[in-house]
Amino acid sequence: MKYVIFGSLLAISSPLIAEEKAVAVVPDKAANPEWVKLKTAASRYVKAFNDKDAAAVAALFADNGEILLHEDLKIAGHDAIEQHYTRIFDSNHEAKVALEATSVRFVTPRLVVEEGSVHYITGDEISTHLYMVILALQDDGQWLIVQSRNREVTDSVAYDKLSDVEGLIGDWVASVGDNGKFTMDFRWEPSGTWMIGRGRYVSPDTDPVTMTVRIGWNPALAKIVSWTFDSEGGFSKAVWTESSDKWVMKALGVNGEGESTSSTQSIEVVDTEAVLWSFTSRVIGDDMEDDRSIKLVKTPPKPFLTPKSK
């Protein structure tokens, strides 16, 4: 059983607790009826698969549902999907599955994109894939799958190393100063070898600043590394080191005005849905800057609101 630095955000990373981990839930999400329905749909998939019930798995798909095996091959329709899972179960009676949803996004009021990791377990062997499913809200109130795809990542050293910071995956928000707001979201890049982050800082006193982050594994250094680029023309590179209960990053870069920058950053878990991102030893050009920190809180998926009747 493997524990990770963000374990309290995503629970223990062992896939053996399959049904409990169908979707990681924080308290605010539980009050959302659509979120509860989505969690139930994920749990039904885990149960149907582990019961080897191909018909029950197929029933989780919409009439036009499909499984994309790769770009040139797909399985469409209830009958074909049921036959597909029947072949899987006939070839491996012991296989079990566990899901870890790391991102759930409402694209429209009736369409959701869910991403995460799926673990196929046979005895002591575990095969891990990244998955993405698109679910549509049906007229009867059920969420059914319209498209499913996954990609195996068990042979990726980068994915294995980055899984230690997988708790970053998701949407985050922080208050900055009196009126500033910083939002950040992290996603797996489809290959599973990178994590991509997008940030935005807004304040009534300044123009918005956006940033992108790419987090990867440097096999030469045997360390996690990241690159950050902002809309003002600045960029930096950081090397990550695990230290006790937090990650420490040594960052060097250049800002949009051409001045060199450096800082020591750290990320540590505050509670089950928040981390503290601290910046110390900050230098811009020849000037030492004040230390600062922000508390990032993980946010639940935001469904579209039904307009109130007049």
TrEMBL record:
It comes from the Bacteria. The keyword Mitochondrion does not apply. Keywords: Signal. The keyword Metal-binding does not apply. Residues 43-143 form the SnoaL-like domain. SUPFAM superfamilies: NTF2-like (SSF54427). Residues 1-18 form the signal peptide. NCBIfam families: SgcJ/EcaC family oxidoreductase. This is SnoaL-like domain-containing protein. It comes from Rubritalea profundi. The lineage of its organism: Bacteria, Pseudomonadati, Verrucomicrobiota, Verrucomicrobiia, Verrucomicrobiales.
